[in-house]
């Protein structure tokens, strides 16, 4: 907590989780594959992260990348993942689902919330893909979500700032509005001052070269649009500290 502002850092490794806590994060969103926007992490990753950090760890429940329209079998996977991460120490959950016409899937979300309780639950950036954010926010309030992560339905929280401000005004404290998406040390103060929020979400990552000495440049383990085979992205301790300091100095 930075004098009233809570910084949540999304992480997909133990190293990033440790750096985020050391830098002043008040909460972690734990995922795998941030390159895809984050999917459900392994139980092993959750268990080891919980061994090394003391701040709350909210676990992503998302069975795959891509859209947020889920089949019955994918929904079954999500419910089982919720049960598993709850039993292995998750402090909260991050999830969401939409209908084919871009509305919050109230039926599926209600089922997942029932399985999630009593843990707090954040509706993730599926919100940024809804047809009508004003209606969607009221749906989330009525369902009982604790917060919503959003870039203001734009490509970054800075560009979506006008909508984020309107959502904060609409929420009236019934649900926490947490901006996220492209937040950096260059725009954080403007976002905090211009929105009226008390929490923000960031990755604060930097590139890190692989320690591999032998490298086979002919082989790539993923598709063509993936991260470099011998490059890693980790939460940067200095970046996290800088963001925390900016939040502390923002009135």
How does the major sheet shape up? 8 strands, parallel
Strand % is: 15-25%
- Share of helix, binned: 25-40%
Main β-sheet, spatial strand arrangement = 7-6-5-4-3-2-1-8
Shape, per Cα inertia axes: globular
In sequence order, what are the helices and strands, one letter per element? EHEHEHEHEHEHEHEEEH
Low-confidence stretches: none
Backbone CA Rg: 18 Å
Question: Could you state the oligomeric state of the chains shown?
Answer: single chain
- The helix tally amounts to 8
Distance between the termini: 14 Å
Total beta strand runs: 10
Secondary-structure content class? alpha/beta
Average pLDDT metric: 93
Walk me through what this model shows.
The protein is an alpha/beta fold and 251 residues long. It is 35% helix and 17% strand. It has 8 helices and 10 strands. The chain has helices at 14-23, 43-52, 72-87, 106-116, 133-143, 161-171, 188-195, 237-248; strands at residues 6-11, 27-30, 57-60, 92-95, 121-123, 147-150, 176-179, 199-202, 205-209, 231-235. The strands form 2 sheets. Strands 7-6-5-4-3-2-1-8 form an 8-stranded parallel beta sheet, covered by helices on one side. α5 (133-143) links the parallel β5 (121-123) and β6. α1 (14-23) packs parallel to α8 (237-248) and α3 packs parallel to α4.
């Amino acid at each position: 907590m930075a004098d009233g502002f809570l910084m949540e850092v999304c992480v997909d490794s133990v190293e990033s989780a440790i750096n985020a806590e050391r830098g002043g994060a008040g909460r972690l969103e734990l995922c795998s594959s941030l390159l895809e926007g984050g999917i459900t992490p392994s139980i092993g990753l959750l268990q080891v992260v919980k061994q090394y950090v003391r701040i709350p760890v909210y676990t992503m429940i998302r069975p795959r990348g891509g859209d947020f329209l889920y089949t019955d079998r994918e929904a079954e996977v999500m419910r089982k993942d919720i049960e598993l991460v709850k039993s292995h120490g998750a402090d909260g959950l991050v999830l969401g689902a939409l209908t084919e016409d871009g509305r919050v899937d109230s039926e599926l979300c209600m089922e997942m919330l029932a399985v999630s309780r009593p843990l707090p639950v954040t509706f993730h950036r599926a919100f940024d893909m809804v047809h009508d954010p004003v209606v969607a926010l009221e749906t989330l309030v009525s369902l009982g979500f604790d917060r919503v992560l959003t870039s203001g339905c734009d490509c970054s929280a800075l560009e979506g700032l006008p909508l984020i401000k309107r959502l904060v005004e609409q929420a009236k404290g019934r649900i926490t509005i947490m901006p996220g998406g492209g937040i950096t040390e260059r725009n954080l103060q403007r976002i905090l001052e211009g929105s009226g929020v008390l929490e923000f979400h960031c990755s604060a990552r930097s590139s890190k070269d692989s320690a591999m000495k032998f490298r086979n440049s002919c082989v790539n383990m993923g598709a063509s649009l993936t991260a470099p085979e011998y490059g890693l992205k980790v939460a940067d301790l200095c970046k996290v500290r800088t963001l925390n300091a900016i939040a502390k100095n923002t009135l």
